[in-house]
Input
Amino acid sequence: MMRHARLTLAFGVFAAAIVSPLHAQERLGTLAAADQQRFPGWTFTPTFGFGEMYDDNVVLFGARSAEGETNDYVASYFPGADLQYTGRHTSLGMRYTGSFLDYKTFSTLNRWDQRGGLELKREESAHLKWFADAHAAALPSTDLIELGGIPFRQTGAQTYETRGGVDYIFDARNQFSTALRYQDISFDRSAIGDDILRGGHILESTSSYRHRLSERTAVGADYTYSHVDVVGDITPFDIHSVMAAADMELSPAWTLSGGAGVVLLQGTEFTPAHNAPTGRVSLDRRRGGTTFHVGYLRSYIPSFGLGGTSSNQEVGVAFRSPLFNNRRLYTVQSGVFRDDTPLAELAFQLPFRSLRTYSTIGWEFDRWVRIEGFYARVQQTTLRAGGQVYRNQVGFQIVTSKPVRIQ
Output
C-alpha cells in the first residue's frame, strides 16, 4: 500500500504539471520563507523579508548595448500572508505575497511584484477527490514568466489562472483524473510592448488514466486539448496531444515517469496544420531532507510574445539538500533550458533559446528566520545578431515567518 501511495502521489504531481505549464517564476526571496507548520483548523502565517542584490542589467538591454551603464543595486521588501484551513476531508488556502523593488539609481523602475492565490481541495470519499484554485500575479518584467516564446523585456505583465479537476479511483488498480484550466496573460502597453508583446488566453482540458500493473508500476494514457487565442492573430487555434504513459517506482527514494505520443496543431491562415512527436520523461528522488528532479518535455506551445505557435523543447533540473549533515544549513540549485522555434515562417516570429539558473546557500538560524545568499542568471538569444540578452543577480535576503493557530 505504501508503494501504491507513492505511485499515486507521483501521478498526481504529473497531472498538476501538465495542466499548468504557465506559471510565474518564484521571486528571489520566497525560497527563504520558513517551512509553514500546519495545524488542524485555521492557521495564519504572516511573513516579512528584506533583501539586497546587485543586478548587472536592470533594463534587460541586449548584449554589448550600454554595457556597464545598466547595472544597479536593488533593495526589496516582501510582505506576505497565508491563511490555511485543514480539516478531515477539506483543505482551504489563501495566500498573498508582495515584493517592492527599490532601485538605487534607476528609480523609475521601482514597482511592486504581487501574487495571490486561492486553493480548495476536497476528499468526498476514498474514491473521489476534487480541487479548484485560482492564481493571479502582477510582475515587473517578462523574464519572471516561466513560459516559452516570450522575449525578455523590462515590461510589466499580468497573469491569471483558474483550474478545477476531479480524481477518481475506480479500484485498487485503476484511476482517472480530469481537469479544466483557463489562463490569461497581458502586458503593459508601451512603445516596445505594443510591437512584440501580445498576450492572450488559453482554455485547456487534460484527462489521464492509469492502470496499476504492480505495486511499483502503472501504465496509461494522457490526452490534452488546448484552445488558444493570441492577441493579434486573426484565428484562434487548437492543439491536441495524446501520449501513452508509464510511472515506475525504482526504489523507495527514486521514481521515474514518462510518456510518448503525437501532438496535432490545427492550421490557421499563417500556419499550416502540423503534427509531430511529443514526449516527456522525469526522474525524481526524495529521501530525508534531500530532493532531486530532472525532466525533459517536447510539445507545441502558444507564443504569447510574438503570436502563433512554437515547437518547444525544455530541460529542467532542481536539487535541494541539507549541507554537512546540518538541518539548519541547506542549498537549492535549479536550472531550466528552453528551445522555442516558431512554426510559421514569418519575419516577425523569432526563435528563442532561454536559460535560467538559480543557486542558493541558506542558514536557518532560528526556527522562523532564515538568511540566504543567492545567485541567479537568465539569458536568451534569438539566434540573430544583437538578439542576446543576459542578466545576473547576486545578493542576500532575510525572511521571518511564523504560523499562528486560530482557535
In short: The chain has a mean pLDDT of 85.
